[in-house]
Write a structure and sequence with these properties.
InterPro entries: EmrB-like, MFS, MFS_dom, MFS_trans_sf. About 75% of the residues lie in helices and about 0% in strands. The protein has 18 helices and no strands.
Length: about 475
């Protein structure tokens, strides 16, 4: 078992700040990019409606590496891995800013994502092992606060930087923060290692990761990559075969990447599959909305960024009420109704056009933020609430993977639909119609998850704590 750190007073005070800054860098990067996509597309001579690969490359890489993060930290030491994670994220940011082609930018985003995938899981693991259980919730609450500020600040800051400088600065602002983070990691991050060498399920990792990559590329092939349908079908079949092979194998090895036993807990199984499908819609929104506002409705980057603020504000406002609402109505009722409402609100974005009053648009986005945040909180909690202490770590890791994977699939699906509905050379009203049809389809897809949440026990209510990483 990994040993527990004994922290001096100064390190105990600084460590939560260090992990919080890493969390802030990650959440800021996840939202600051979207408002800059049209400007990046113009500079790189790409179609702004086919820029989803920049977003997907990051999310998919993070999803791939999350399962290995704990084992890597135990094997090589938390200080070395946390320092390397911040350094890679910072270096990847520099490479992104220096990119002169779409392919260079994609590769740079992968480098950035390798660091991003390790920062928060390793930081959270160190906090779990370094602080007494009575202080853990308080420390993690402090660390989560910057994660709420990132989505609030990101879109506006991204739009403003594009207008007053250039899109390169959305990556360059990470450099000084990353440099300070690297120095602080060397000074204050405890160096925890596992005293016992555990075998990593490398075959399972390759099968599971291969399935995620192949299925995502297949969806991308329908959109941005414009692959022949035969190749897309082949990728989907191979990806599905890899996933089937993983689950068949996982039931017969001693330490699988994710044990099939987890799915014997009904609330976990429903929560995982519900997350996967419900987040197809919510994951597509940060990509679709800034594009709609700039490409179809003529908003400036700064105006599009500020229009996203109600999404984050709505999400923050509902947080204090989530526990009492779930305690009062139960998981099944909340998730079924909330999923249908979220899908309807996403689909109703098809009514937005140049004549829509700004106040009405902002209210619409704020309501989406409220419902979306309630969805995240309820889905995350119901997924883990029924797991034993022995299975909680593995279940949380799989949930984190599914969150990232479903968001990347959401962006890929939105890109494929948008590309399919857009007639070559389309302008003006034809482009707006493509967005409207895409929102209708994404909303309908999200609503299908309600059938999954209906399978929950109607009497199940809230656990002692909320699981919330949004």
């Amino acid at each position: 078992m990994p040993h527990t750190a004994v922290l001096d007073a100064r390190t105990a005070r600084v460590l939560p700040w260090l992990v919080a800054i890493a969390f802030f860098m990650q959440t800021l990067d996840g939202t600051i990019l979207n408002t800059a996509l049209p400007a990046m597309a113009r500079d790189l001579s790409e179609d702004p409606l086919r820029m989803q690969g920049v977003v997907i490359a990051y999310m998919l890489t993070v999803a791939l590496l999350i399962p290995a993060s704990g084992w890597i930290a135990d094997r090589f030491g938390s200080r070395r891995i946390f320092f390397s994670a911040i350094a890679l994220f910072t270096l990847g940011s520099l490479f992104c800013a220096l990119s002169v082609s779409f392919n260079q930018l994609m590769i740079s985003r992968v480098v950035q994502a390798i660091g991003g995938a390790l920062m928060l899981p390793v930081g959270r693991l160190v906090v779990l092992r370094a602080y007494p259980r009575r202080e853990f919730v308080k420390v993690m609450t402090f660390i989560a606060l910057p994660g709420m500020v990132g989505p609030l600040l990101g879109p506006t800051l991204g739009g403003w930087l594009v207008e007053v400088a250039s899109w390169h600065w959305i990556f360059l602002i990470n450099l000084p923060v990353g440099l300070v983070g690297c120095l602080a990691a060397l000074r204050f991050m405890p160096d925890l290692k596992s005293e016992v060498r555990t075998r990593f399920d490398s075959v399972g990792f390759l099968l599971f990761g291969g399935a995620m990559v192949l299925i995502t590329i297949a969806l991308e092939g329908l959109g941005e990559l414009q692959m022949p349908h035969a190749r897309v079908l082949l990728l989907m079949v191979i990806g599905s075969a890899c996933l089937a092979a993983y689950w068949l194998r996982a039931g017969h090895v001693e330490t699988p990447l994710f044990s099939p036993q987890l799915f014997h807990t009904r609330s976990f199984a429903v929560g995982i599959f519900g997350n996967l499908f419900a987040r197809l819609g919510s994951g597509a929104l940060p990509f679709l909305i800034p594009l709609l506002l700039q490409v179809a409705l003529g908003y400036s980057p700064a105006e599009a960024g500020m229009s996203m603020i109600p999404l984050a504000l709505g999400a923050m406002l509902i947080k204090p009420l989530a526990k009492s609402l779930i305690d009062g109505f139960g998981y099944r009722r909340i998730l079924v109704v909330n999923t249908l409402l979220l899908g309807s609100l996403i689909a109703s974005m098809a009514t937005v056009d140049a004549q829509t009053p700004t106040v009405l648009l902002l209210l619409h986005l704020g309501l989406i933020g409220v419902v979306n945040s309630m969805q995240f909180t309820a889905m995350n909690t119901v997924t883990l609430v029924g797991l034993s202490n022995r299975d909680a770590s593995s279940g949380n890791s799989l949930l984190s993977v599914v969150v990232q994977l479903s968001m990347s699939l959401g962006v890929a699906s939105a890109g494929a639909l948008l590309g399919g509905f857009t007639v070559p050379g389309a302008e003006g009203e034809a482009v707006l119609q493509a967005f409207h049809l895409t929102f209708l389809c994404i909303g309908a897809m999200s609503m299908l998850a309600a059938t999954l949440f209906f399978q929950l026990d109607s009497k199940q209510t809230m656990a002692a704590r909320l699981i919330d990483e949004e």
